Every structure is written in C-alpha cells, then in structure tokens.
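agent> step 3/5: call structure_predict on target 'DNA polymerase IV' (Novosphingobium anseongense).
agent> reason: downstream docking stage needs a structural representation; sequence fetched in step 2, passing through unchanged.
tool.input:
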Amino acid sequence: MAQTPDRKIIHVDMDAFFASVEQRDDVSLRGRPVAVGYAAARGVVAAASYEARKFGVRSALPSVTALRQCPELVFVPPRFDVYKAVSAQIHAIFADYTDLIQPLSLDEAYLDITANRRGIETAWKTAKEIRARIFEETGLTASAGISYNKFLAKLASDQRKPNGQFAVTPDMGAAWVETLPVSRFHGVGPVTARKMASLGIETGADLRARSLRFLQQHFGSSADWYYGIARGVDERPVNPDRERKSSGSETTFDRDLIDDGEIEARVLRQADDVWSWCERAEEFGRTVTVKVKYGDFQNITRSRTQPALVTSRDTLRAASLVLIRSVLPTPKGVRLVGVTVSNFERLTSPVTPGLPLFEAD
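tool.output (status=ok):
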C-alpha cells in the first residue's frame, strides 16, 4: 500500500481545554484538581485538569467515584459560551495558515499546511508558531502532532502532552507505528482492542504481521483500515466539508439479561463499537439513542439530543449510560440492546464537543 508522503498535516489539540479555561479565568483554581461538570448523584465528569488526572479522574467518570478518588476535587459547571468564544480565537489563528481546517471538536483540529501560505521553513516551525500564538492570545497551551497523514498526526499530538509537539516523518512513520500498542490507534476501541489481544495482536507490529485476508475474516469492513494504518498509511484528506451519516450497533444475547450492571456493560460495548466507526470515519452527530428489546419482543427506545456534537468516546459512553439507566431496573429480561448516533451535521464552523448528559429525567 504505497502512499506519497507529500502532505504536511498538523493536528492541534488543546490541553485539558475546558478545565484549563476555568483555571485561567479563576486564579483560585490554578494548581488545584478541577472537574468540569456537576457533583450530582448521577453526574459525570465532562473534563478534568491535569492535577485531577493524577488521581485517575477522567471524563465520563461518575462524579461520586471522582470525589472518592480525589476528595479535594473542585467541580465547576460548564460555560459553553466561553469555550466557544475561545475556540473562535484559536480557529482564527488557524485560518492565518491555511484554508484546509477540519475541526474535530471545540478544542482540536487538523490543518493541511502543504501549500505553506506563510512561507515558513518547516511544518515543525509552523506548529511551534501556531502554539505560541495560541498561548499569547488566549493564555492556554496546546499540543501538536506533525506528519504526512491524519492518522499519524493525531497519534503524534498525544506524544508530548501537555504543551509539546512531536513529528512523525515519512522515513519513520511505518516503523514508529509498529512500536505502539493498538489500543492507542484511532478507530480501535476497547472492545476491538480486546478482540485483537485475543488474536495475539497487541502492537502495531503484531497488526502488520496479519494478512489482509486474516483481518477481513475477523474484522469485516474495518480490515482495510487496520491493514493500512499498521503500515502508516492513511489517504484521508483534510476536508472542511464532510458528509454526515448515522452510525449504530446492536447485539442479541444468548440469554435474556436481568442484572443492571450486565445490561449497562453490554450497552457500553455497543457504544464503543459505534464510536470506533465515528472516529475512523470522522463523522459525528448530536442525538444518541439506546434501543432495548425485551424477551417478549417488546421494543423501546430512549433518545437525547446533545447541545453540541458528540465528539469523544467518553461522551458517547456517558450519554448511553444515562439513557439505559432511565429504564432500569428492568421489569423483565432484556434480549437485545443497541446504540445509535444520529442527527449528523455539516461542519461549517468550529463545534463544541458534546458534554455528557449528567442526569436522567
């Protein structure tokens, strides 16, 4: 699978964006563990500062659990209007360097700077200048990944977080991928990672060693994607105008389920399957639907439309949990569960990543 490494792609990812904005605007929060969200009984963490992450606090973690792990945790309610305003500042900076900007959420985007509008010597220096301008104009730090395709650039942006950057050059791309655990690959969710592990695939090298036919037998339509990324190949362009689709996954059980915890776990598996598709296709929606079929074949659905696009696995998981919990405890055995994301929108401006639905009706 040959790929001409003639593109220069930068993936910019703000560092703990929501929490960092709150710490910037309230000096009393600086240096303290902060969670954006609500400390309600069934609330979840929407975002966590790096100080909070040291205690294992992450987005989509139940608030009660987060407080147990970090009693000093400070909860701050989200301020969408402020986050959106700061995002607009950041995207205005991006626009000085390229017209090819593909926002993934409020706090991250791909930039194709191959045309080199500003005549900067290297993509590395371009990313460094962009990050410096973001800090100067917003007081916030960003990390960046630089490479010749989107898959590698996004992986690279995680390599030096926070407030750093990392480049994957054409001569190192394929070899670097081989050293990484497949669980880090975008499009490989927890369920798929566990399946790969059961097949002896734990690293990029393991994945590359499998034939396309083997991958097709075990992963169906996703096989071509896995085969390509194991070799550092990703032909997707940075595209500001992407068509939106819906994505859904459901499963029928061998036996009817009664236990709440087991039902929730199965819903999370379906949410992970859906997210793997969304992430790989870079298609995001606002409406999350959970479907339940009982043992007597009665069907029910529960849906919620988020205030913004669902652009993270944790957000989808949290929303799915809220919806399934609205029908638990179950009055009868559950035969099937499914999760669907819909209401996909054409991206015409920077979008706000949907926060989890904190409490059920």
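agent> step 4/5: record observation. Residues 88 and 350 are 7 Å apart (CA to CA).
agent> proceeding.
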